[in-house]
Amino acid sequence: MRNRQMVFPLQPMFPPMSKDYPSWMFRKFQNFQFCSSLASFIRIFLLFSLIYTQAAGLIFLPSGFSLPSPAFAQTSTNKTDSKVSHRLENFLISTEDRDDWTRLMLAILNSVPAVEQVLAQGVSVNIRGTEEFHGVTPLIFASGIGSLVIVKLLVEKGARLNDTDTQGNTALIQAAKKGHFDTLQYLLLQGANPNAETNQKWKALMFAAHRGQFEVLKTLLKHGARADFQDDLGMSSIMYAAQNGHFEIVLHLLKRGAKVDLASLNGSTALIWAIRGGHENIAELLLNAGAEINYLESEFQRSPLLLAAMYGRESTVKRLLSAGANVEAIDKQGANALLLALSNNHLKTANFLIEYGITINTADQKKYNPLMAAVSQGSFELTKSLLKKGAVVNAQDFAGKTALMIAAGKGDMKIVKLLLREQGRLDFSDRYGRTAWMYAAEQQRISMVRFLSNNEIDNHENLFYAVSHGLFKVVETLLELHANTGLRDSQGWTPLMWAANNGHAKIVELLLKGGANINSRNGKSPNVSGWTPLMLAAGSGHLETVEFLIQNGADLTAEDEDSWTALTWASHKGYTDVVSFLVYNGANIDKLGSDGSTPLIWAASQGHDTVVRVLLTKGANYTLKDGYGKSALAHAVLQGHFSIAKMLINHGTDINQDLLYAARRGYKNMVVFLLEESAEIDYLSPHNETPLNLASQGKHWETAKILLEKGANSALQNAQGQTSLMSAVLTGEAKMVNLLINSTKQAL
Question: Transport: present as a keyword of the record (predicted)?
């Protein structure tokens, strides 16, 4: 016979861990420390699973076998069932490796006889669970699962009615929370406190109001529950009922004298909660009961009318206005009901307010007004209605944005034309200099771009904006409209320069096809020395753009005012792939700048080791020095780029010349590095000057000290017959003289 398979529900078999019972019990069974052996753990786990899953109809039991439902199996007419139940009771209460509280909880889940047997063994009826289980008592647990017969048994055995767990729950609160009416009624009759509260000051009445348990609520009120108690958030029962749409409960609470204008800590009354929740029938009920119509909640200082408009509760808006609500009220941010309705796309409510006569030009603190909001929502009719009522068409918000800019950015042709007919200004710009045309361009609204371009007095300036932002379709459209590609901005840049600088290769191609000068410079005329598009692309590392420009005839030899070429720029910025491409295409690898620096010198000084490697591989002259006498090696060492310095040394750089330079300048760290790289400590210059001679002449005491410590010969003479000591005497540097005298004595 094929085994039947359990079909698992979509939701977890056991409830999530919370205040509700008996999910805490399941957690207990998950703790291996609870059992002395794995076997006993498995037995208890399976038993608990069977009890729950059978009750939920989720398992199949063998024919002739059944389990009593949790806490409800009192008697059985079936002998087999009675025997099974008896065996389960014995299993529940007899295992020695189980604590008293757990045994009693398991018994409550099983049957009355099981509970009686555990209690008969001396287990206290008021025993508490551990902190892990929030100190739950048997009565609280039984009330939470709605087992009236066991609740009665526990009370008869002396269970204390008003004991609380660590979260403040009493048995009555648990019964109210779960809607167990019979249990709750019994507990009240036995004297349970109807106004007991949890740690968060929730009372049984609040749970009933919150969850819509009308009969429970009525019974609690009948037994003395107070309607106007507030929890630690300031919420009362009528607020919870209004918030959750329980009309009948709100009505009953009002009849029992509940205060209609109590406010929670955030300043919200029952009316405000009803409006937020969209319960317009309850809002009407509360208004009829005299709820304050102009009360302001504390967070945003919004009245019921403002909230009703914001949430699109049109009938409530009408009712509030008919009751005398202030139509011109504004919130903390300066928004009126119309602006709130429009901003939240409640167009019917907004239309009603316009027709009612609300002020239409009221703007909030950011100067955002109803016309802007209507345009943002794409409502032509409301935009038209607002303009007809006198809305200021060219009003600007805090950022300088107008309704026309918003409409253009959305590509809403119908509204744009309407605004233009009402004298909307295309020449207005926001605080960032953007016009309505630019808003349309940014969003690639091509039809709008074309339309507005035809309305512009001078459209050529817009080409710069489109090019610099990489708006290909917009550039294409402007070129079709004969935009001038040779135009220059205030810096002397052409559109092609901007495209090259920003790496927009496809736009570069468009502009060249449109007649742009590929070798234009950023001067007032093409002949003025300055940057070319190729230099800008190379200096920004845009290889694709560089490739396209070279392939289309860009001048590789062009120089700027500092005699820098595209290769110099790429080397200085460290763009290895661009450097490789330019060198491959014939760029002068040793081009001298106006200060004598070469691409290699710039790459070395900036620490671009991969660029240095490429240039050396391609034959760059590493012996060249700039106008200050510094070689690529000197620059690398002085900037701390020692890996580059070693690369240059390995390529054959004469480090002795650089040692002389370092000593003359007093670059002590460079001296140390070069000596460690085997530079000759007494190397002679063409004038027979040693590094020590040069350091002495330059008054570089620390450098001279290093050279002496490394073994420099202080007795060597230069071409004038002067030793290092003589040079020091001539310079009048006493500290240097003493250093050299002491060194000479030590040598003797």
Answer: no
